[in-house]
Automatic annotation (TrEMBL):
The keyword Transcription regulation applies. Keywords: DNA-binding, Repressor, Transcription, Transcription regulation. It comes from the Bacteria. SUPFAM superfamilies: Putative DNA-binding domain. This is MerR family transcriptional regulator. PROSITE patterns: HTH_MERR_1, HTH_MERR_2. The keyword Transcription regulation applies. GO terms for molecular function: DNA binding; DNA-binding transcription factor activity.
């Protein structure tokens, strides 16, 4: 299917499909006129990528684990998955730390606004 149909079916923009291809996450065939041609297995892969991206994972991590999520299992998959899970946990922990800092900043601003409103004539 052409990129416009692949975009519609997968729910991601044509620009995102091109980006995923540039990043090596997906591959497309080419028609005789040079247009990209996407098969159903590529669209299925896009669904996985989209789900991982919506979880906030960076492309770097997705690129590492994607073959093990979408291709046939092979030797070493358990090790890769364990490393991936460690990376995901580390990413999640960094995210939680950032959220904590932002929550503290929000609380400080809330306090400031409460105090400012009390003294406002």
């Amino acid at each position: 299917m052409k990129i416009s149909e692949a975009s519609r079916v997968s729910g991601v923009s044509a620009r995102s499909l091109r980006h995923y291809e540039d990043e090596g996450l997906i591959a497309s065939g080419r028609c005789s006129n040079g247009f990209r041609d996407y098969c159903q297995s590529t669209i299925d892969r896009v669904f996985v990528i989209r789900s991982l991206r919506e979880s906030g994972l960076p492309v770097r991590l997705i690129r590492e684990v994607l073959p093990h999520l979408t291709d046939e299992p092979d030797a070493g998959t358990d090790m890769v998955c364990a490393e991936f899970l460690h990376e995901v946990q580390s990413y999640r922990d960094r995210l939680a730390a950032r959220i904590a800092v932002l929550s503290d900043q929000q609380a400080a601003l809330d306090t400031y606004l409460r105090e400012a409103r009390r003294t406002d004539p």
